[in-house]
Structure formats: structure tokens, C-alpha cells
């Protein structure tokens, strides 16, 4: 057992006894990574903040059931990506409902303006190209998008991504290959039309 693994096991034990100090340590250690992962999937800082908080609340409430079959970080990424995707599905359902109510002539208070996406990279030159890439990433199928985000935003290894997605390394390689192929095709076709 490495010292990092031992430290994580110790943290989990402390969390399971209800230690507030251990919970603060957990949040300090993982909040930025979890927030950035969720932000990359939801593209709304406000929603990402809410979902990240929900992840830590869920950890606090369910840590007693954590068996240690996977690394603590793997479990956190699973919770974060799962909650982000559920949040996105709810938002889509809400938009569809709003669209249909507007078609039927009802007062439409459900539909909200989509907030501008304030990703730190957007400050760099080529803001339009970044937005285009992010829009195409957002259109990838869920599993491809999660794999792509964990690989390129969080720089997780293929093995870590496989653990988060509860799949194999070859399956992750395939997801990433298809995601890159799709992105390349869309970006090349966009370049041809410019």
C-alpha cells in the first residue's frame, strides 16, 4: 500500500466516523477538480457550483456505504459526472416543456436565458474557435463527452477513466477515438464553410 493509498484509506475511515475536519480536507482536496469536471459538462458556472455542492452533500450522506472497491477520487468523479448528466437531462426536459408550452400559446416562464459560458480559456485569443470546439464537445454522446472531459480537462489516465465509467481501458480508448474523430470531422467541415 502506497503512502497516498494509506492516506486516502485513513481519510475515508475518518469520514465514516463523521469527522468534520476530514470532510473539510476532502472538500479542499477535490472541490476544484470536481467543479471543473462538472463545469466542462454543464457549461454554466452557477449550475456547476450547485452540482459540485450536491456531490459533496451526497458524499457526506453516503460515505458509510463506501466500500473502497474503487479509489475515493474515482467515486467522486462517478458521482460528479452522473449528477452533471442528470442535471443536463432535466434542463433539456425543461427546455422542451417550455418550447411546447410556447407553441401552444401558454405563458412561458420556464425557459431561461442560457448564461454565457465563462471558461477561463475563453480569455485566450480565438474565443470563437474555443466556443465552437466547446459546442461540438457538448454535442458528443454522454459517455464520449465524459471520457473526453476526464482525459483532457482532468488529465486522468485511461485506467482512471475506465474506473469512473465502470468499463474497460479498450472501451475508453474507443470512446476517445470516436469523440476525437467526430470533433475532427465537425471542425474540418466548419473550416471548409468559413
Walk me through the structure.
It is a single chain. Residues 103-125 have low confidence and may be disordered. Helix 7 (158-165) crosses helix 8. The chain is 74% helix and 0% strand. The longest helix is centred in the middle third of the chain and has 32 residues, at 72-103. The chain has 194 residues and is an all-alpha fold. It is globular, with a radius of gyration of 19 Å. It has helices at residues 3-16, 20-42, 45-62, 72-103, 127-138, 142-152, 158-165, 169-193. InterPro entries: RNA_pol_sigma-70-like (IPR039425), RNA_pol_sigma-70_dom (IPR014284), RNA_pol_sigma70_r2 (IPR007627), RNA_pol_sigma70_r4_t2 (IPR013249), RNA_pol_sigma_r2 (IPR013325), RNA_pol_sigma_r3/r4-like (IPR013324), WH-like_DNA-bd_sf (IPR036388). Residues 26-92 form the RNA polymerase sigma-70 region domain. Residues 133-183 form the RNA polymerase sigma factor 70 region 4 type domain.
